[in-house]
Amino acid sequence: MPYGEDKCTKRLQTKFAELFETEVTVFPVTTGTAANALALSVMVPPFGAVYCHAAAHINVDECGAPELYTGGAKLLTLPGSNGKVYAQDLTNAIASSGKGVVHHVQPAAISITQTTEAGTVYSQSEVRQIAEVAHTHHLNLHMDGARFANAVASLGCSPADITWRSGVDVLCFGATKNGAMAAEAVIFFNQDLAQTFSYRRKRSGHLLSKMRFLSAQLETYVTNDLWLKNAAHANKMAEKLATELTKLPGVKFCYPVEANEIFIQLPEAVIAGLMADGFQFYRWEGEHSTTVRLVTAFDTKYESVDALIKAAQFYSDCFDCKKT
Amino acid sequence: MPYGEDKCTKRLQTKFAELFETEVTVFPVTTGTAANALALSVMVPPFGAVYCHAAAHINVDECGAPELYTGGAKLLTLPGSNGKVYAQDLTNAIASSGKGVVHHVQPAAISITQTTEAGTVYSQSEVRQIAEVAHTHHLNLHMDGARFANAVASLGCSPADITWRSGVDVLCFGATKNGAMAAEAVIFFNQDLAQTFSYRRKRSGHLLSKMRFLSAQLETYVTNDLWLKNAAHANKMAEKLATELTKLPGVKFCYPVEANEIFIQLPEAVIAGLMADGFQFYRWEGEHSTTVRLVTAFDTKYESVDALIKAAQFYSDCFDCKKT
Amino acid sequence: MPYGEDKCTKRLQTKFAELFETEVTVFPVTTGTAANALALSVMVPPFGAVYCHAAAHINVDECGAPELYTGGAKLLTLPGSNGKVYAQDLTNAIASSGKGVVHHVQPAAISITQTTEAGTVYSQSEVRQIAEVAHTHHLNLHMDGARFANAVASLGCSPADITWRSGVDVLCFGATKNGAMAAEAVIFFNQDLAQTFSYRRKRSGHLLSKMRFLSAQLETYVTNDLWLKNAAHANKMAEKLATELTKLPGVKFCYPVEANEIFIQLPEAVIAGLMADGFQFYRWEGEHSTTVRLVTAFDTKYESVDALIKAAQFYSDCFDCKKT
Amino acid sequence: MPYGEDKCTKRLQTKFAELFETEVTVFPVTTGTAANALALSVMVPPFGAVYCHAAAHINVDECGAPELYTGGAKLLTLPGSNGKVYAQDLTNAIASSGKGVVHHVQPAAISITQTTEAGTVYSQSEVRQIAEVAHTHHLNLHMDGARFANAVASLGCSPADITWRSGVDVLCFGATKNGAMAAEAVIFFNQDLAQTFSYRRKRSGHLLSKMRFLSAQLETYVTNDLWLKNAAHANKMAEKLATELTKLPGVKFCYPVEANEIFIQLPEAVIAGLMADGFQFYRWEGEHSTTVRLVTAFDTKYESVDALIKAAQFYSDCFDCKKT
Question: Of the candidates A47, A71, A202, which has its C-beta nearest C103's C-beta?
Fold first, then answer.
């Protein structure tokens, strides 16, 4: 049966309800950008505003997808250390937003990313405080969970605790970065918001006729804790990297390492050496930046991590790097 | 390398250039709706009009995707026997469209479907005549090729002949209905139109990070004529069905059978019998309709076709059906 | 006080509530296109459909404004003699629309024009039947009333009777064509639909800072029945024209003349003569058409009507026109 | 003749060409929000970005109109003292924007406001530097001139000098704030950008049928330097206010006073007193703010300014205000 009427897709509803210990409505899509933008499209009106961190993926890395799918809603950015939005900043922003005044876009949602774009993880308490502000002012709470698995593995809590029990209305549950080919699930804890989603997914071309190939990825992913095992491995590899790299002279971590991403300043000699050795990573702030991002994954091998560490130590020693 | 920078995706450019015997730009996406709507989004302005057959998939089966992606352009429908648009009707429509008059949406593209929604196939001459009208009036010509393979197999021409050599500017080349999991390619013969496509694909969430899994489907599909073999098989199965069903009393074909779809009126007793036996097909005009659509596919077995024919004969005999 | 906080604008709410004998919310805007498109934007979702007559102004004369303001909703046209939509056609259209099926745009509103684009007038009974079908299927009923005054003057009923008492949810109440400089009022009988209108008006640039100049036009217009007097005069002038023109040989009325527009086939010699004499009107179906539209207005003078009639008689006699 | 085919509207083209000493295309609309958003809609693609000051009217006071009209383009804000964008900040922003990278919205325009939202005025040199950066990177330069007259009066230059001669592509030339009822003109110096504007104006409902009433305001406005006289008067009134208020203890100007707006911190006692006396102005940063905005206009009377000054002095003396 096509277009999601197959058995595998139907089973997903139950699978995710069990995983999240509550009723949910689940919509598989193929990309995180589609998941986020479609989710936001049912959470805000075209004249609405979505608060998010200035570094949020929806704000800087989706080429305006939220604007397209919401019919022109506006992303309003908040500052926040370690890539996080803080409840107090949200409160202040809403207070000065001109709510009810026709000249201004109207606050309608807040989007947070878990794991954040800085590789850090919101605690339950942090999410709960944001949710409280949001719901007090009738904003919906969206969680971009492209790296949700890494956050849950890091927190060691249940998926329910860090989502609906903390006030999240809609979660974009990512699988692609953690092992799937191309699979994300938009999960509605707030059922009212789910009602028009299927039409919006179809009219954006994100309803697959052979949905079973997409759903099968998600089903496997959440069976036997595969998703958490994958994430825990990636996190462990990042921790190992961080533990060893911190011993080198001249390095500086930009943010706490809490999941599978490391943002770190390295001596130029070390960066150049690693690159010459074929390690692949981005200079994070332009081509001359000595801040780099190191990402570990579900399939990162111990040996690769060891090799990177050894290479970094070698180049560090070699060039007698000084602390910057 | 993510986001289409992989080798397989890069190879697609060459593969399709060879297949179509000309320079092309190829963008893989996962669904036909996405392919069509994104293609149209670079072919018409928001205040533009797209002519198409009243029965066109873009008009009735995409939940408004073209309207979303074009920023509100309008589909203007044309009549036409056997599911086809005819050049003369297009000429007339443009003549009365109010071109240059600010009150009216401005004709900017014509979209035709090959194989049509009626299962018929445009000849080269028919496409060429449409293209001539289109280009004379500065309209772009879009071909929805969800079943393009079946048309080429039916025509026995080269892919080039029925597309750019006949004046097609952009082709949505379908693979999903003919064997792929979820893969379509938007193929630009008119390179000027391709320039902003990559941004539009990204902002609609249709750029896959692990593009290689999508490109691999397309590469296999066009290698060693697999796509044409699949389509030829499906067409042959449809021909077989048509040849036999026409012998039954009381049947009437709605359109010529030229590819892999049959639209046929059957006696109710035959329909009911086939359904009771587990054959799956749609009543085409509502739940009491005795017009049904029979579709054969790349994987339709000879035995299945035989079984259907035998069952139809059995129910026809049994109930002593009269010619309607 | 700017932006509609002035006294005149506030008085409009009461004025219109009295005029329509019920609670209303009134939003002044400057054009009929803005009124219609903004009204529809709160009546349908982006994946929705608006039924309307094929000749509806929203469909053919607004350059896609409804599509822009609704975020891409689709206008689905209905046939209908004398420029009218009929309840039965609406019923049939909804029945075959695929309501609830994700592939199709979802019926959400029906728009009728009163006075119609053919110069005819819906009776209360006709509107009521349409409303009944609409509301049974949860569609909103929009009335484009660019020539609403002429319809009310023609019907001799109260404005309430032909709108909310007959089931209209939102009326675009025109004044520009009947004497104002640039003033239309969007009138909500269904208050739920009004809630986000003010934001949508602002973000489309249709909220005037010096709103009082707009509201003053509307206030004057509905004071002391000026609007009805203007319309009655225009209607009377049209009636006079029709009564006399019908006596000429070779003329044929396209539709009943019920308000201030006449669609009439005239002998070419008469058309050419009238044009040569400086009378201004459109050939209605292209430059060689002998169907013309004659429109009378609030300020059409008796003498002008007489002059046209005399001229028509002169050219008719002169050229010895035969009945076509 | 309707829809701008009247003589008055046609004369505007010549009038403005003379005023700006170059070929221009002029489109009258009724509001500044419509002017800005429509202008931007032809300057950026839907996946584009518009740079502007964080305090820009288009960013904070138009309820998302630019997002609606551009089909979802993004406004990216720049800091800048005295309400101004500076060329160096624009350079830096473009450099880190990810131009050519598909994940990011693409820089396509820069919008500056003249007179700025802080009541300051860009010099020719400042505009020229911004234009140079913009054009080097293929961005269009938009000037929001809601208070353009006040800027020209303040600079004492020709309108040409501060616009196209300094590199402005499109100017929104305001009249409403400086004497008109509701009239703005979108003026294209870059003719290529003007080509689709008329369709976009129509489909947004901003094409008036009786355009002459709108054009007449603009024609009068630019005849015999009325616009400059009005602005010069308003500026003078502001200067007078500033000169006297600066003498009071405890006052602080937020920005230089260069046109007809004063942003000033006043002792609470003075603010309360002035309000009690019936003077109307906004507290600028919320209801407890002691920063107020004083705006003078074309019709501000000398006596009113004197009265305000005297009252301010009285309340200042009375309460023995200290310097803050």
Answer: A202
d(CA B41, CA D73) in angstroms, rounded, equals 15
- In angstroms, what separates the C-alpha of B37 from chain C's closest C-alpha? 12
- State how far the alpha carbon of D91 is from the alpha carbons of A66, C287, D130, D140, D164, in Å: 26, 55, 9, 14, 21
Joined together, the tokens standing for residue A100 give 């009810």
Residue C199 touches chain D, beta carbons under 8 Å = yes
Q: Helix or strand or coil: residue B252?
A: strand
- Interface predicted TM-score (ipTM) over 0.85: yes
Nearest CA in chain C to D181: C210
Chain C contact set for D178 (CB, 8 A): none
What pTM did the predictor assign? 0.96
A145-165 average pLDDT score: 98
Query: For residue D49, what are the contacts with CB-CB under 8 A and spacing of at least 6?
Result: D73, D74, D75, D76, D97, D105, D106, D107, D108, D109
How does pLDDT run across D276-295, given as a tens digit for each residue? 999 999 999 888 899 999 99
Query: How far is the C-alpha of C252 from the C-alpha of B259, rounded, in Å?
Result: 49
Q: Is the Cβ–Cβ distance between C112 and C122 less than 8 Å?
A: yes
Query: Stretch D108-115: mean pLDDT, rounded?
Result: 98
pLDDT tens for each residue of C280-313: 999 998 888 999 999 999 999 999 999 999 999 9
Q: Are A71 and B245 in contact (CB under 8 A)?
A: no
Rounded to whole angstroms, how far apart are CA atoms D138 and D134?
A: 6
Give every residue of chain B whose pLDDT is below 70, as ranges. Answer: 320-324
Q: What share of chain A is helix, strand, coil (3-state, %, to 5)?
A: 45, 15, 40
Query: A210-239: buried (b, 16+ CB within 10 Å) or exposed (e) per residue?
Result: bbbbbbbbbbbbbeeebbbebbbbbbbbbb
- D106 contacts B47? CB cut-off 8 A: no
Strand D106-113 vs strand D74-78: parallel, antiparallel, or unpaired?
A: unpaired
Name the pLDDT band for A287 (thresholds 50, 70, 90): confident
D184 touches chain C (CB under 8 A): no
- Could you list the beta-strand ranges (E) of C131-255: 140-145, 170-174, 184-188, 252-253
Which residues are bridge partners to D51 per DSSP? Answer: D76, D110
Instruction: Say if residues C117 and C53 touch (Cβ distance below 8 Å).
Output: yes
In a 13 Å sphere around the CA of D236, the CA atoms on its Cβ side amount to 11
Q: Return d(Cα B43, Cα A97) in angstroms, integer.
A: 39
Q: Which residues of A20-53 are buried (b: 16+ CB within 10 A; e: fewer)?
A: beeebbbbbbbbbbbbbbbbbbbbbbbbbbbbbb
Tokens standing for D274?
A: 């002035």
Please enumerate in sequence order all residues whose Cβ is within 8 A of that of C192, keeping only pairs 6 or more positions apart, or say none: none
Signed CA dihedral, A304, A308, A313, A318: sign only? positive
From the list C102, C198, C200, the residue facing A199 with the nearest CB is C102
Closest CA to A63 of C278, C268, C227, D45: D45
Burial degree of D72 (CB within 10 A; 0-12, 13-18, 19+): buried
Contacts of A255 (CB under 8 A, 6+ apart): A82, A83, A118, A119, A120, A263
Can you tell me the distance from the alpha carbon of B226 to that of B231, in angstroms, rounded to the nearest whole number? 9
Q: In what order do the strands lie in the sheet with C48-53?
A: C25-29, C184-188, C170-174, C140-145, C106-113, C48-53, C74-78
Residue B161 CB neighbour total at 10 angstroms? 17
Instruction: Kindly list the residues from chain A whose CB atom is less than 8 angstroms away from the CB atom of residue C202.
Output: 47, 102-103
Paired strand residues for C293: C263, C282
Using CA coordinates, name the residue in chain C closest to A68.
C71
Q: d(Cα C14, Cα C75) in Å, to the nearest integer?
A: 34
CB of C70 closer than 8 Å to CB of C142: no
The order of strands in the sheet holding B252-253 is B252-253, B261-265, B291-295, B282-283
The two tokens of residue C85 are: 């939509």
Q: CA D129, CA C278: separation in Å to the nearest integer?
A: 55
